[in-house]
Batch of 4 targets.
Target 1
Amino acid sequence: MALREDAGSVQAGDGMFMKGEKCELHALEGSDYEVSTFASHVNAGFTTRHLFTGSIPMRQIDVKEVWERERKAGSVEFAIYLPIIGGENSRRFVGTCGLYSHRDIYRGWELRILVFTPDAIGHGIGTEATELTVNYAFERLNAHRVWLGVNAENIGAIKCYSKVGFKEEGRLREELYCFGHYVDAIRMGVLESEWTSASPAKA
């Protein structure tokens, strides 16, 4: 289930923090490239229909301010990159993920992820990025619990989170208002004990 720490690596010089079979997680730097790419794709709205939080349109200055505010609050933010086949040291920025809303006394973190490039959807990239991030929370941040909120109509995301190991913990009825109607919000979570027991390396 879990991608162990040896599935990722830290490489100086290229910003890579963790590496899976499909994607790489880099520290979200807030470079001009990252900010402009994120803003343009989010504003296009191809993969943001089921966003749990946030609003559009977003100006590039808004994106920078949000990322900086989260960093100052102690959040851990990653950029999801895909290596470009045949392009040495070339990578494409396709999404963001991270750990937020840290509650130190309870060792809890909220996971958020957005793959904003349409052609990166449906290939297991979001699942792998979620696995890498959750594994980092338990193996490096000593988390006890990782949780998330998801739009009940976002069936693909719910399947992804369930595959990684998240379990539904509750439902907030008609919590969200999306495209003219109210939608339930589902809370899901995974515990450290569940993650550890599902890991081949610790079985």
Target 2
Amino acid sequence: MSSIGFLVTMTAKPGKTAELEEFLAGALPLAEAEGGTVSWYAVRIDEDTYAIFDTFDDEPARQEHLNGRIAAALMARAGELLAEPPSIKPVDILAAK
């Protein structure tokens, strides 16, 4: 079981939800290419709130992901797509199935 992860929440700018959804869906191949990323989810919480939840087996893999292509691409487009900077929180996984 993976023991650590990230929970990234973000709010789309008005009129940018479709573009943010396209961006998130398009990031899947990047996540799949990361050997240390065990699982990666992009989800919609409500009409303008989205999240990424991903898991890792160790801290080096989590840090590699944080410094990787998805994070760089998100930060490059944050001003265009997001109403405010994303909230990026490291999490400890307590239980999983």
Target 3
Amino acid sequence: MLVTRTLLGVLLGTTLFAGAAGAAPACVADGTLASYIALGAGGCTVGDKLFSDFSYHVTLGPLPDATAVVVVPVTPSANIEGLEFEAGWTALAGTTTDFALSYNVSTTSGRATIEDATLTASANDIIGTNGGVGISENLLGTTPLQLLTWNQSDNHAPTGTFSVTFTPVSSLTASKDIGIFGGNAGVEDLSIVNQEFSQVPVPEPATLAILGMGMVGLAGIRRRRSRG
């Protein structure tokens, strides 16, 4: 009986938690980064992920401000959600530009299920050679997670993807430091920064509810047998 009550309590608590977290709006497709920043700690959701506390700072050189950065929610497959940031971040020949981008990611269920982060970027030398882009990202959860890095130079690898798997967490902060280095002529361009987060599959709430009802039924049968 104690086990049954405990399970029902967990189910009820999960439902209430999900309902409260579900109050956050869905992330808007093609919204500006400025509008995402304005959401503050309330954030917005993509699938079962809550993205919040966005921060964007141009630290070196002229670059698009937050109103010129487009954000696109992405759900490439089951149990994977993320965001894609699109803008014309550039550096002229012989110059360097730099910006910082960060945000929090958490599960709306409160379960520690985020187990993987993937970073993809697309850059290109529009004219000239020897330009480059470097991205360093710290993933911080309850304990520091692994650092992701992405580097492109001389137009040899215009698109790159890096992934890291870690012990599942319920929330983390993704902080990126992105530098763009102009080559000996022309313009170096970074157009897309994409990040996705995978999670451990968990039973649907309906499945958990059925399991709970089944255990209640089993408890009733056992009581009747003990009385007989």
Target 4
Amino acid sequence: MKATSIGRLPMSPTISDEICKKLADDIIAGVIAPGQKLEEKAIAEQFKVSRTPVRDAFRQLEGTGLIESKAHRGATVIDLNTEQLADIFEALGEIEALCAKLSAQRMSSLERKRLENLHKLSKAPNDAKDESTYSDLNEQIHKAIHDGSQNETLRALSADLWQRLAPFRRAIFFERDDRMARSRDEHDEVIEAILGGDTEKAFSSMRSHVANSSLNALTYLEESRRDAS
């Protein structure tokens, strides 16, 4: 079995990561409108960088479905379809619920200890209202549950859907409606079930947790669009 560290620090973001994050936030908030073309040169000048990290950021954004790039036409912002987004969240909920169920059966003692430790680490940022640190730990907790399923297909599917939903899991989404505290409470239920070997509770708690995250993200998106119009 591969060695697993007990908690890890998130990697420092690159310039392209920061550009991707800023553009994604602006697209979701409606500051950059659907159909708008993203100009490499203008964005490079805005961030005072070369075009290379801008191209890398565009590739990341295309992977999340926020923009589309076509040869000789550049990158264009896609009109976000909330029904499609809800479909992706629904699929993720079922896949992650199954990961949680299998984790309750298959996690090694070291993996269980790591999951428990990550959850404990999330208390401090929750108490301090540090959405950014909590967001990083939230991702680590979910990945630990994906890994704990011991199923490579489920891990790959989870990773793909997490990538597509990455813009809707940023720290800003934990700011509304006390979502961060509620998220940690939901993690309590999921992790307690996994550590206790309660497969059905692990499944239902994780599915409910992802559904609540979906509702939070979709509500934020609708409110942001309404405010921007």
